[in-house]
Each structure stands twice: as C-alpha cells, then as structure tokens.
Amino acid sequence: MKRTEKKQQTRQKILDAAAGLFRNHGFDNTTVQEITEAAQVGKGTFFNHFPTKQSIMQTLAEDRLLQLDEHIDTYRLWKLPFLPKLRAYFSFFLGEYERNRELTRRAWMNLLETDSYVLKKWEELLEEGMKNQDIAPDISLRTWASVISSHFYYTLAVCRKETKDAFLHELMSLVHVSLQSILTQRGHRMMKKLVMVGGGYGGMRILQKLLPNELPDDVELVLIDKLPYHCMKTEYYALAAGTESDQEVRVPFPKEDRLVLRFGTVEQIDRENRLIHLVGEEPVSYDYLIIGLGCEDKYHGVPGADTHTYSIQSMEKTRRTSEALNNLPPNSVVSVVGAGLSGVELSSELRESRDDLYIRLFDRGETILPMFPKRLSNYVQNWFEKNNVDVISNSDITKVEEDGLYNHNEFMPSDAIIWTAGVQPNKVVRNLDVEKDDKDRIILTNHHHLPDDENVYVVGDCASLPHAPSAQLAEGQGEQIASILKKRWKGEELPNRLPPIKLKGVLGSLGKKHGFGVMGDTALTGRVARLLKSGVLWMYKHHSGV
Which residue positions does the secretion signal occupy (predicted)? Predict the structure, then answer.
C-alpha cells in the first residue's frame, strides 16, 4: 500500500472513532486517549494528523463541505432557484444534525470562525443567482455572503430545535428577511410550497377541500402528474374492453389561480433536500408533500408475467391493452389472471364487447369474490356460467410465455393475457427509506404523515391503512389530510385521533346491465346494483371539481 493511502486511511479511522465517541459521550466528555484507543493508534499518530481535539471537529465540517460539489451534481441542485438551493446547501451541511445536534453546531461554528471557504461558497451561490436573475445585479458578493454566514452562525448559536427541518425553517426565515432587498421580482417570496405528487382520487379530494379559499396566502399549491387530467382508474376495465372511450374516464383538474400544474413522471423523492426529481425535468422543491403515486402490478415472482401480460393499472397501459384486445381476430383466447373486482369487471365487460372470444378467468380461491356474501358470490359465478366465461378455480399461475401460461405447470394457450392478480405501491414509494408494512405500504401516524416528518403525508394506495386500498378510502383519507393541514395552518390543536374512515360499500359491474355490491349490510344484485354504480360514477364525474 502506498504511504499516502495508508496515511489517509489512518486519518479516516481517527475521524470515524472521534465522531462516534462525540455522538455517544459528547465532545467535552471525550478524551484524546479514548479516541486513540477506539482508532487503535498511538497518541503520536493522532497528533501527526490533528494538533488538537478541537481540530477534529473543524475537520468533520471541512470534509462535509468538500463533498458539497458532488452532492450538487448527484441531485442536480444547480437547477434550483436561489432560495431553495440555499436551503439545500444548509440541509446538506447539517446532515448529522439529528444524530448529534451539539457536535454539528460546534463543528460549523468553529469552521465559520476560522475558515473563509464557506464564505466563498455563498459568494459562488450569489453569483449564480445573479446570472439566473434571481438576485439583483451589481451587489457586493462579499457583503451578502457575510450576511448569510452571520445568520448561519447566529442560528447555530441560539437555535435548540430538535429536528433539522425545524432548524432550517428558523434559519431560512431569518435569511429571507435580510435578503429580501436583493431578491428580484422573479425571485422568491417566502412562500411555503405544498406539493402533491399524483392526482388520483385522494389528491382530487384534497384539491376540492383546499381550493379556492382554504389555502393561506403564504402557501403555494403544486400538483405533479403524468397526465393533464384526473383518470377514473376504477373504470379502466371498460376502456380496456372497448365499451368506453378514453374521454369517458377523464376528469379535468380544477382551473384555479392558486393551483400550479406540473406534468412529468416522478423519478425520486429526496427527503433530505426536500426535492421531487422528475424524468427529464427540473426538480421541484417542497415544504409540505403529499404522496399519492398509486399502485402498479405485482407479479409475485411469476416468470414472464411482467413481460407477456397486459395491464389496466395506468392509462398508458390500459390503452395498450384496449388496442390488443380489440384487434384480436374472432375466436381468440383471452386469459384474465386474478378474479378480484378488477378481473371480474374486465371479464364481464369484455364478454359483452366481444361475444366471439373465449374468455378464461383464473381464480386462486375455491369461490369467486369470497369477501362478499355467498349469495352475491353465487350470483356472479352464475352470470359467468350463463355468459360462457370459464372460471378456473384453485388456479396457480407458475409461468407466462408469449403464447400462453402455465396453470399448475399445465400449459394453456392464450392469444392475450391480462394481469389483475395483485398490486403494490409505485416503485418510487417502494424505494423510499421509510418504515413500511408487509405489503410495502408506508406506515403513518394517526394524522396520515410520516412518523419522523409531519410535513410528508401519504394518501391512497401507498398508505398502510386498516382497509384494502380503494378509491373511496383514498377520498376519505384525502378529506382528513386537508382538515389536518387547515388546522395546522391556523395554529389549532390537532385531535389525538381522527375518526375512522367510513366506507359506504362496494359496487361492481357485470357488463352494462347487471351488477353486484354491498351497501351497508345490504347485498345487491342485478339491474339495481348496476344503476346505483352508474349514478355514483355520474355524480363523481360531474361534481368532483371545485
């Protein structure tokens, strides 16, 4: 090993040992002797690298500072406007704040007292702001960099907030007041930004409850979605079967001055820097975040299922499914895997749309729709028998190929296979480093936010709740989230627990003329159930705006 590499490794061992001891015992209660023993080096080696114990603290801050440029590149922070970028810098510097507040405070205060490198970073940031027209031209970079540093130092000295977010809020409020005179018109008021990712059923209910008059003047509402309209996902089965047009399952987003619409695909949620990264777009910063990204198919490890099946989990995939099904030649075989509500509705709607097709519906259980009363389950089974849909009970799909699937290892040819056999939260949510249940849904507090961040809420299919995901559940949750936000903005005390979300019932379709469902304790079948569902859909489509 080269001498310089070994020296660097020894230095890092000392730093790691010191940082661990400082966290566990405090800076003042840690001795050089304890550091050398933990690092397994002699005192002479220690002093070759660090003249004093105090210098270790400064080095920890310096090392963090040297990693800043890499952090900026990794998270594309250069694209942010001035104030969100400044906040992101502070957030990165304070990465250890919640693990050891005292060490973080003292390390940065020491560095600000003895080194001008932080000052140069603020000058660079201000200069970029001038080029981007966020900062007024011809200002003294050194003067305003000193203002930023002085506010950072002051907040480190006096702020005793327990969380990094609370510390940053106090710091940014102070900075904004001082910098207001050099922020351009294009620059930024000290607005708080409420960002919703996903305009599903829960998101639409939140919009309905907050717009147009329930947002505080200092809160900006931003909705990020892939599509320029809300989609009635519960009706995708009809679009796939060809009995409804694309237009019939759309609902426009509200047109309100207080609502900013951003269209794009969410790639990553960066909680540390409060950024939403979009594919091919600039990141969006947030102060409050509502995650409503919905779900996608879960293939349970079945080989070929993700490659050789069609889906009705997104508008884009449903359109492809519709095209494939409606282009099938007469007497083609269609296999629907999964006999839950989606599989049942798709199979029945497809039967009405194409009476020339041979349709198989694969059900893992012995009885179709076992969660419903037996009379209702029998009614659905009889409808399928009468209409020549082959329900294959106790199925186990072990493999899927381009021209068919294996049920208990028996190959069954198929011209099209549609997967409705389970869902999981969106991949972005699955990648979040937060506590989740056994279905990968995010565990929340009683108030629907993350246990470690009261500014991040989760609504709909990604939330771990007592009931199975549904549009109705997402709407009820969205209503409660809106009420919590309004209380917080008004400074009102939150209730210890929110009332349980009451679900009115479930309604399903068997084509356009028959249906089934449960409303309260009443099981419904036939035309009445279908008419009720049609009425609910009509009301939603024409009264979901604000």
Answer: none
Q: What is the 3-state secondary structure (H, E, C) of 420-442?
A: CCCEEECHHHHCCCCCECCCCCE
**Does a structural domain hold residue 446?**
yes
C-alpha closest to that of 298 among 464, 440, 470, 459: 440
Closest C-alpha among 193, 265, 209 to residue 456 = 193
CA distance 37 to 46: 10
Instruction: Answer whether residue 35 shows pLDDT above 70.
Output: yes
**The token pair that represents 233 in the structure block:** 């996902």
Which of 367, 395, 422 is the C-terminal boundary of a domain?
Answer: 422
Looking at the structure, do residues 376 and 289 belong to the same domain, yes or no?
no
For 256, residues 6+ apart whose C-beta sits below 8 A from its C-beta are 211, 212, 546
CA–CA dist 452, 445 (Å, integer): 9
Shared-domain flag, residues 411 and 443: no
pLDDT band, very low/low/confident/very high, at 545 (cuts 50, 70, 90): very low
Amino acid at residue number 228: P
Which one has a higher pLDDT value, 232 or 255?
A: 232
Domain of residue 272 covers 192-226+264-297+425-502
Band of residue 428 on the pLDDT scale cut at 50, 70, 90: very high
What are 318's two structure tokens? 């449903």
> Do residues 405 and 487 share a domain?
no
Strands 259-263 and 219-225: parallel
Yes or no: say if 383 and 460 are a contact pair by the CB < 8 Å rule: no
| Strands across the sheet containing 522-526 | 505-510, 514-519, 522-526
pTM for this predicted structure: 0.77
Q: Is 277 found in the same domain as 360? A: no
Claim to verify: residue 62 and residue 173 sit in the same structural domain: yes
The mean pLDDT of 224-251, rounded to a whole number, is: 95
DSSP assignment of 214-274: SS-TTEEEEEEESSSEEE-GGGHHHHHHTSS-GGGGEEEPP--TTEEEEE--EEEEETTTT
The domain that holds 271 is classified in CATH as: 3.50.50.60
Which burial class, exposed, middle or buried, applies to 238 when counting CB atoms under 10 A from its CB (0-12, 13-18, 19+)? buried
Q: How many domains does the chain have?
A: 3
164 & 197 share domain: no
Q: Are residues 337 and 417 in contact, defined by beta-carbon separation less than 8 angstroms?
A: yes
Q: Do the domain assignments include residue 39?
A: no
- Do 145 and 70 lie in one domain? The reply is yes
Measured distance CA(164)–CA(43) in Å, rounded: 35
Q: Is residue 528 part of a domain?
A: no
Same domain, 154 and 77: yes
Helices (H) and strands (E) in the chain, counts: 19, 23
The region, left, alpha or beta by phi > 0 then psi within -120 to 50, assigned to residue 117 is: alpha
Domain boundary among 422, 437, 465: 422
Cα angle 309-311-317, degrees, rounded to a multiple of 5: 115
In a domain, 119, yes or no: yes
439 phi, psi to nearest 5 deg: -105, 15
Taking the C-alpha atoms of residue 530 and residue 462, their distance in angstroms, rounded to an integer, is 29
Single out the residue of 170, 169, 49, 155 nearest to residue 104, CA to CA: 155
